[in-house]
Amino acid sequence: MPRGDGCLSHDLLPGEKGPQDACGVFGVWAPGEDVAKLAYYGLYALQHRGQESAGIAASDGTRLLVYKDMGLVSQVFNERSLDSLKGHLAIGHCRYSTTGGSTWENAQPTLGGHDGSTVALAHNGNLVNSAELKALIEDRMAPGQSHIGELRRGNTTDTALVTALLADDPDRSLEARALEVMPLLRGAFCFVFMDEHTLYAARDPQGIRPLVIGRLERGWVVASETAALDIVGASFIREVEPGELIAVDEDGLRSQRFASAEPKGCVFEYVYLARPDTTINGRVVHESRVAMGRALAREHPVEADLVIPTPESGTPAAIGYAQESGISYGQGLVKNAYVGRTFIQPSQTIRQLGIRLKLNPLRDVIRGKRLVVVDDSIVRGNTQRALVRMLREAGAKEVHVRISSPPVRWPCFYGIDFATRAELIATGIGVDEVCNSLGADSLGYISEDGMIAATEQPRDRLCTACFTGQYPVPLPAEDRLGKEILELQLPVDIVAEAIARP
């Protein structure tokens, strides 16, 4: 099952995976600016989209360098490493594994190319035809070619496949190769890539994941979210259009189309994935989430004393629920913001404490109260079940759970880490049965209509596959999908015999 590139704002039991986000990508072309530090701060703003590894590539027009490692952006980089990345253009990436495991070899940006022409690539999304692309590479490339260096070094990501395809012809420009390669790709992709002189960005024809363009006083920025433009002082210009390839160099910004636009933006970006202060298609995400909470209150009213969020992901919807219902809003749970931001695994004793590692109740606030607890989604149900139990033990009189998305019944193959269908609690059972499983007094999900209305986007321009099972990009056979597809299928001769670029 492909995984998206995640955030840790969702409150999870130790060892449990909730909905994880897609990676964060950032690119900057700005002569005279400290582009590595701009990329660093851009990635810092996108940290919620990927917390397994981080990397930056930079070029001064002669030499392209990549620095990457496992960990958070603030753990990977320091003043010394950033100072080593000199130049006028840079790209950056923060990762949650989508295709290929969470290893140093799979950290991005990936690197490939030939003498005198190098390509570095950062990817947000998940391709569904990786097995097909792998076969294409086998046909095109003989062992020993230097431009498959990432595969030689053990990289098992779809990003490495695209890097290899972009680097397979030293006699053609990177731009020309990109226009040939992009139409071959299926699935969700937002690419930010570069050679020694030019910054590029491309977005899949469905525009499933967000990608925006910003203007600096002396340059240009491309990023996954508008929040990253804000942090580096760039003015929002527009979104990269679905099916568009842009290039930025000393002649400015130019655009070409490699496919017709068929917009199907991910609705879960509005529900949970994007930062609340990000704007997608003209709609501020925070406003969408508040509107979802208001719709929840209209669709599933209940007599209660206090509305509390599951922090932080449920906060905007809880505010909207309180505003619409007239029930007081309060903070009933305190979140430890640092849980999940360490590589030290909890001991068995700590693990048994469950959700208390992440959340702790304010007993004086909730004791004797009828609570409405608002969250963004239910995946397996383990976290909500433990939360309901914890609130009751802390003295809550009633616990009514409200969810600002419909039941998740289908896995995502475009970059979100949901469980397999068999593990999703809503698969094959009704709301009352889910409610009984959680131990709540009542349970209400927002309707699909209510969720979509809150985004202020046309229904036919949104991907709702995780709720409906209607996938906008056709999927291959099940045995050609999955996070480990390349780890299982990469040919031994290519991995063993190919010569990596120094």
Automatic annotation (TrEMBL):
It catalyses: 5-phospho-beta-D-ribosylamine + L-glutamate + diphosphate = 5-phospho-alpha-D-ribose 1-diphosphate + L-glutamine + H2O. The keyword NADP does not apply. The keyword Lipid biosynthesis does not apply. Its EC number is 2.4.2.14. One of its GO terms (biological process) is purine nucleobase biosynthetic process. Its cofactor is Mg(2+); [4Fe-4S] cluster. Residues 23-251 form the Glutamine amidotransferase type-2 domain. GO terms for molecular function: 4 iron, 4 sulfur cluster binding; amidophosphoribosyltransferase activity; magnesium ion binding. InterPro entries: GATase_2_dom, Ntn_hydrolases_N, PRTase-like, PRTase_dom, PurF, PurF_N. Mg(2+) binds at S313, D375, D376. Pathway: Purine metabolism; IMP biosynthesis via de novo pathway; N(1)-(5-phospho-D-ribosyl)glycinamide from 5-phospho-alpha-D-ribose 1-diphosphate: step 1/2. Binds 1 Mg(2+) ion per subunit. Keywords: 4Fe-4S, Glutamine amidotransferase, Glycosyltransferase, Iron, Iron-sulfur, Magnesium, Metal-binding, Purine biosynthesis, Transferase. [4Fe-4S] cluster binds at C266, C412, C463, C466. The active site is at C23 (nucleophile). NCBIfam families: purF (TIGR01134). HAMAP family: PurF. In the C-terminal section; belongs to the purine/pyrimidine phosphoribosyltransferase family. Catalyzes the formation of phosphoribosylamine from phosphoribosylpyrophosphate (PRPP) and glutamine. This is Amidophosphoribosyltransferase. It comes from Nostocoides japonicum T1-X7. The gene is purF.
